[in-house]
Amino acid sequence: MPYVTEELWQRLPRPAAPAPPASIMVAPFPAPEPAWADAGAEADMDFLRALAEQARSLRAGARAAATRSKRCA
After folding, report:
1. What Cα–Cα distance (Å) separates residue 22 from each residue in 4, 27, 48?
2. Which of 5, 45, 43, 47 is nearest to 23 (CA)?
3. Contact between residue 2 and residue 17 where contact means Cβ atoms under 8 Å apart
4. Which of 18, 24, 41, 65 pairs with 58 at a CA distance of 20 to 30 A?
5. Could you read off the pLDDT of 11-42 as tens digits, one per residue?
6. What separation, in Å, do the N-terminal and C-terminal C-alpha atoms of the chain show?
7. Which pLDDT value is given to residue 41?
8. Alpha helix (H) residue ranges in 12-38
9. How far apart are CA 10 and CA 2, in angstroms?
């Protein structure tokens, strides 16, 4: 995928000044745009992430319980 990424990056429109780096490998990491922050969306994603984690835990617990052999002592 590095070749595809480089090709896409080279084709992005860029301003003439200052001169862009020759490669994505030497380009600076983009800085976050404060105007794009959305606390509501972050809260929604935190909720969905926690929900998915709980669902995986329940599924894993049910599978473990179903595969245990029951021995009568």
Report:
1. 16, 8, 40
2. 5
3. no
4. 41
5. 988 877 788 888 989 988 889 999 999 999 99
6. 57
7. 97
8. none
9. 12
